[in-house]
Design brief:
The chain contains 17 helices and 11 strands. With 466 residues, the protein is α+β, with helices and mostly antiparallel strands. Strand 9 and strand 10 form a beta hairpin. The longest helix has 31 residues.
Length: 466
């Protein structure tokens, strides 16, 4: 079964029609030909934008000359009241200083230390699942938030402060229709962009709650009573060049993006991975077999015993990248593929297109976890796989997210059989890649046959039954 994808528009439309489609669904507004294009230009009365799929071009932007292609000032439009001056929106020396403090928290043995909170959250998520039809994105959102709070602050989602942040963030999500509208469309101020007043109010509530948690942790560090978790590690790390640490307010900026990136993106890809398994019974059975062995005695070392589960998660990241588009701004005149790229042009690198590109992937729209064991995929991975970005700005928590996804899948599939329910979900880009109407799955105990298998057995027993 081919996974669902948005409608791809082949016909030319006017700018204003395209803008309307863009606002409704940034993915479905893209024409089919972009999935085979090396570069495409989009001109409007207000700006010029270039989508770059050719590996040499996106490497120029992300890995070879990233200083010439900073994040646009509009990348955080709509999110800035929440994210402040976090690493998501900063550039240059400010960004470099932040990464020098943050990166050690995710380096080396720290991932091993994060295994316990990841496992605890995964088991809690599996414990909380009910039999019957469930809307799975709501479940994965809560599970991913639980991971973040356990890893950052050593508290579960049931903690009063953690629960308040989670609920406030769910309200904030409803005020943010599209993540990259302001970044990908450099529009005049009079063009409406969403519910600004409600977004700012929700962001202020989240910031207040996070700031309180950071100040409390700063006091615990001073008193010598702070737990050894990610928040403590980041707040006690000294910038090797300046000797300074994050203040409580600076830490609140970073916690906001950790929560947004670590919770929203993980919830997105986990939901899509569960849907893919529900619609591919053979793959689900293979994951369930690995999961049963792993969950019998789970440990960080035994993560290597989940190779197919890891490949399922990689394939879900390929088909449904949580952040489908990244935007940079050209600070110099470029000449690419016989076209001039003026200063100020928006450069769009799109995992949504690259990871389904017809030149880079065999059978690009199909769910085939086994492709990750094939030699040909190594070249595709180098040229067209960047679910966590690439170059200096690659997500520092990429390894954490991969481990989290694998453990979550194992905890759930060890106990439950998943079957699709209702219409196929339609992917759309909001804060991350989500389903327009939700993802509904039917859950049954793992030792009970799935509905599809029961139907197959019934046909074998009574093929002539009316």
């Amino acid at each position: 079964m081919t996974p669902p994808k948005p409608v791809r528009r082949a016909a030319r439309v006017s700018f204003w029609r395209h803008l309307k489609l863009f606002r409704e669904d940034i993915l479905s507004s893209q024409p089919e030909r972009l999935f085979g294009a090396k570069m495409a230009e989009f001109r409007t009365p207000f700006f010029r934008s270039f989508l770059v799929n050719e590996p040499a071009l996106w490497r120029t932007v992300l890995t070879e000359r990233p200083e010439d292609f900073p994040k646009s000032d509009r990348v955080g439009e709509g999110l800035r009241p929440l994210l402040g001056r976090s690493i998501f929106v900063t550039n240059g020396q400010e960004w470099a200083r932040q990464r020098r403090i943050i990166d050690p928290a995710f380096a080396g043995g720290r991932l091993k230390e994060s295994f316990a909170p990841i496992l605890a959250a995964a088991e809690r998520a599996a414990d909380g699942l009910s039999l019957g039809v469930q809307e799975i994105e709501e479940i994965t959102a809560r599970a991913a938030a639980d991971v973040i709070f356990r890893a950052l602050f050593s508290v579960p989602i049931e903690d009063k402060a953690a629960r308040a942040v989670f609920e406030a963030f769910r309200a904030y999500q409803r005020t943010q229709p599209i993540l990259n509208l302001g970044a990908a469309l450099t529009l005049p101020a009079w063009v409406p962009r969403g519910h600004r007043r409600s977004a700012k109010a929700a962001a202020a509530e989240i910031r207040s709650l996070i700031s309180s948690m950071c100040r409390a942790r700063q006091a615990a560090i001073a008193a010598g009573t702070a737990p050894d978790d990610l928040a403590t590690k980041i707040m006690t790390t000294v910038d090797p060049e300046t000797g300074a640490r994050f203040t409580a307010d600076e830490m609140a900026d970073q916690v906001a993006i950790f929560f947004l990136a670590g919770h929203e993106t993980s919830a997105s890809v986990l939901a899509w991975a569960l849907y893919l398994l529900a619609t591919h019974e053979d793959a689900q059975d293979r994951v369930a077999g690995e999961a049963a062995r792993f969950m019998a005695a789970p440990s960080f070392a035994s993560l290597s015993d989940l190779p197919f589960t890891r490949d399922v998660f990689r394939e879900a990241l390929r088909l449904y990248p949580p952040v489908p588009m990244m935007v940079r701004s050209a600070t110099k005149v470029e000449h690419w593929r016989k076209r001039d790229v003026p200063v100020g042009s928006q450069i769009v690198i799109s995992p949504w297109h690259l990871q389904r590109h017809t030149d880079q992937w065999a059978d690009p729209d199909s769910f085939r976890p086994e492709r990750w064991a094939e030699a040909a995929t190594k070249e595709s991975q180098r040229n067209a796989y960047m679910p966590f970005s690439a170059g200096p700005r690659i997500c520092p928590g990429a390894g954490f997210a991969l481990a989290e996804g694998v453990v979550m899948l194992a905890a759930i599939l060890a106990r439950f059989t998943l079957s699709p329910h209702g219409p196929a979900p339609r992917p759309v880009a909001h804060l991350t890649l989500r389903s327009a109407e939700g993802i509904y799955l039917a859950l049954s105990h793992r030792n009970a046959a799935s509905p599809a298998r029961r139907a197959s057995e019934a046909c074998l027993i009574a093929p002539d039954a009316p």
